[in-house]
Specification:
It is a single chain. This protein is mostly helical and 690 residues long. The protein has a domain of 196 residues: Alpha-Beta Complex (Spore Coat Polysaccharide Biosynthesis Protein SpsA, Chain A). It has 38 helices and eight strands. Strands 2-1-3-6-5-7 form a six-stranded mixed beta sheet, sandwiched between helices. It has a two-stranded antiparallel ribbon with strand order 4-8. Strand 1, helix 30 and strand 2 form a beta-alpha-beta unit. Helix 7 runs parallel beside helix 9, helix 29 packs across helix 37 and helix 33 runs antiparallel to helix 35. The two termini are 47 Å apart.
Length: 690
């Protein structure tokens, strides 16, 4: 149905039911293959079609009966056909699996007839379902069985054991594209790019001209940041098929790869416009509305290019609750995310776990650490899922400063899943917070090796490298001060009065995205507000300080904002907050009895500079302003976090412990009211300081 696909690509159909009516009306002129292809296309596009006339004409068709599962979530017709024909029980099992019914899925392949013509495939489905349910299973012989045996190893023993098996057995493994593609996909998920590359080399050597080889070559180029190569390969593939100008004929995989290329290409610019990504994703999703990867890319494109308030409203009815909750978290709306994750949980074990993990993450982002830990539930049996559970258990424990628990679960997870970069970074932070700087450095070294394998080059130094290096040094610095805050939150001794003015200031350079506009409105609803840009900030500095020439020399918006915020607070006081902080509740009581309000960050227990509140003329702020200005003046290429941001504030704030009127908030305290560090579109661009 190329004409229909072109219509769908161009715009939504004025009458979505018309193609289905036309198919049924012309049924007498169609043979089976044409009728099946037409019905499958309509179901894939989520267009209404009455399947009963087709199923009555071809009552023995398993494939037609399968369409009812996708179209109406009804496995009844398929069950009737399969049991009557005594074949293709695997199709019935996977249909029940897709309907979140693992018990019926297992029952469908529990008693198999060796005389059935589909017995081998049914036996493979039985083994795979048992493996996915963490039950004993006997993979059958052949390529499918080889893949299932490897799947069993991965789930029972973890990624390290899987990599060892591939290394030892690869010469004897079948040259089956599905097996090697699964290995590549799995190693990419584990962030083991050495093993993924080795698996691809085996696939390319044995099946050089297979479509799976071409697809995996593009996939790895995208995963490893080789965007130009990925685009060249994808364009050559499209041109060879003469399909460059007919995107409505592309496969879902091709749309996905094109969108990823486009995202990465645009992000390399200083001020990217993501509207083309949203336009293509919207069109592709009309062709493949049930494709979860395209659904995710469409939501991502809306985050980058669409109105956030409208997106938040639409996420209330998004078909994938977990995907919607993730996006709502990224929009700074954890309460709405939690509502989308309301029980009952899915019945499939892995989906149920991931729902619990998302719920725990959401509660953590609401500052409710005890509830987050409770929401995790028990660790699962499958090792890859246990690693995901361990990551969030460690994150929540670290936020609660239960560092012993965090270290224990991370150590166990890294034994079996050593290439998961998130585990390595969390382990580095936990070691640092525990006062184990050498252990933190070991974890960062392991992370750097993994990241180098991914990118093909050294990733460069980040803030974590700087603070761990500082902890390893002999001289007192930001790391030593941060460890003091990690050990204990200083007690608040209130003043009799409240000298901090209840007004907020922000700094922003460049175009205002929907996210910026929404944040401005939210802060304006709380208290009087001022917004500065480079010109107005420089004008203020010119009139009130001698810092305007230094401001002019600073190379990026982040350091300019850092210098200006300290100067403004030192003179006028009030609240200074970055616009990627989104308030969900009032904060006037934080200012009561305080002359300074600081937030201890979750990551390395440093003092944040994305939210600062101070009384006018506070000597601490004036001294900090002068020290940061001196550092920036003598640093050719300043790193904002280290030279003008949290590192400098942390070192200075160590001297405030015990002073009256100094309120220290933990990040969980802060996140009960303010969503922090939201992923604004500009952060994907090459101009962002990270």
């Amino acid at each position: 149905m190329p004409a229909l696909a072109q219509q769908m690509w161009t715009a939504p159909l004025p009458d979505p039911s018309a193609p289905g009516r036309d198919l049924v009306a012309g049924l007498a002129r169609l043979d089976y293959d044409a009728a099946l292809a037409g019905a499958a296309t309509l179901v894939r596009m989520d267009l209404p079609v009455d399947l009963d006339p087709l199923q009555k004409r071809w009552p023995g068709s398993v494939d037609l009966a399968r369409l009812s599962v996708e179209a109406t979530r009804d496995a009844g017709p398929l069950e009737t056909v399969v049991k009557r024909a005594n074949r293709r029980r695997a199709a019935l099992a996977w249909a029940h699996w897709s309907l979140d019914d693992p018990d019926r899925a297992l029952a469908a392949v529990s008693r198999l007839d060796p005389a059935s013509p589909s017995h081998d495939g049914d036996l493979a489905a039985q083994a795979e379902i048992r493996i996915l349910l963490d039950l004993p299973a006997d993979p059958p012989p052949g390529p499918q069985g080889a893949r299932l045996s490897l799947l069993q190893t991965w789930r029972r023993e973890g990624a390290a054991a899987l990599a060892r098996r591939m290394t030892l057995e690869s010469p004897a493994l079948p040259a089956h594209p599905g097996l090697w593609s699964w290995l590549i996909d799995t190693f990419v998920a584990e962030r083991d790019f050495d093993s993924a590359g080795a698996a691809f080399a085996r696939l390319a050597a044995r099946q050089p001209d297979h479509p799976a080889t071409a697809a995996q070559r593009i996939r790895l180029a995208l995963e490893q940041g080789r965007t130009v190569e990925a685009r060249r390969l994808l364009d050559a593939q499209v041109d060879a098929q003469g399909a460059r100008d007919t995107p409505w004929l592309w496969s879902a995989q091709r749309h996905i790869q094109h969108l990823r290329c486009l995202l990465d290409t645009l992000s390399a610019g200083s001020r990217p416009d993501y509207a083309p990504v949203l336009d293509h994703a919207t069109r592709a999703l009309r062709l493949f509305p049930r494709n979860r990867v395209l659904q995710g890319l469409h939501v991502q494109a809306r985050e980058l290019a669409d109105d956030w308030a409208a997106l938040a409203r639409d996420l209330d009815s998004h078909p994938d609750a977990r995907m919607a909750a993730r996006s709502l978290l990224r929009l700074g709306l954890p309460e709405a995310a939690l509502a989308r994750l309301a029980p009952p949980d899915p019945a499939l074990p892995d989906d149920a776990l991931r729902t619990r993990l998302r719920r725990a993450e959401t509660l953590l982002r609401m500052g409710r650490t005890d509830a987050a830990m409770q929401a995790l539930g028990p660790a699962p049996a499958a090792i890859p899922m246990r690693a995901e559970h361990a990551f969030w258990q460690a994150e929540i424990a670290a936020a609660s400063r239960d560092l012993t628990t965090a270290r224990t679960v991370l150590s166990e997870a890294l034994d079996t899943s050593p290439t998961r970069m998130g585990l390595r970074l969390t382990a580095a932070r936990v070691a640092f917070l525990s006062g184990d700087a050498p252990g933190a450095q070991d974890q960062l070294d392991a992370f750097r090796a993994l990241k180098t394998a991914e990118l093909g080059m050294d990733p460069g130094l980040d803030l974590r490298d700087r603070i761990v290096a500082d902890a390893l040094g002999a001289a007192p610095g930001p790391a030593q001060a941060a460890l003091g805050f990690a050990c204990a939150v200083p007690a608040f001794i209130p003043l009799a009065d409240s000298p901090i003015p209840e007004r907020v200031a922000h700094y922003w350079e460049g175009p205002r995205s929907s996210a910026i506009t929404r944040s401005l409105a939210a802060w304006a609803a709380l208290c009087p507000q001022r917004l500065f840009d480079a010109e107005s900030a420089r004008d203020w500095l010119e009139r009130n300080t001698a810092l305007a020439p230094l401001f002019d020399r600073l190379p990026d918006p982040a350091t300019r904002a850092d210098l200006f915020r300290l100067a403004l607070l030192a003179a006028e006081g009030g609240i200074f907050v970055d616009l990627d902080e989104y308030p969900r509740a009032g904060l006037a009581d934080w200012l009561e009895g305080a002359r300074l309000v600081l937030v201890i960050e979750e990551g390395h227990a440093t003092i944040a500079n994305n939210f600062l509140a101070a009384e006018p003329g506070l000597p601490f702020m004036a001294g900090l302003r002068d020290r940061v200005a001196a550092t920036l003046a003598e640093t050719e290429t300043p790193y904002p976090w280290w030279h003008s941001g949290p590192a400098r504030i942390t070192q200075a704030a160590a001297g405030l412990v015990g002073a009256p009127g100094i309120r220290f908030l933990t990040q969980p305290d802060y996140e009960t009211r303010i969503a922090t560090n939201l992923p604004f579109p500009h952060k994907r661009s090459a101009a962002h300081w990270r």
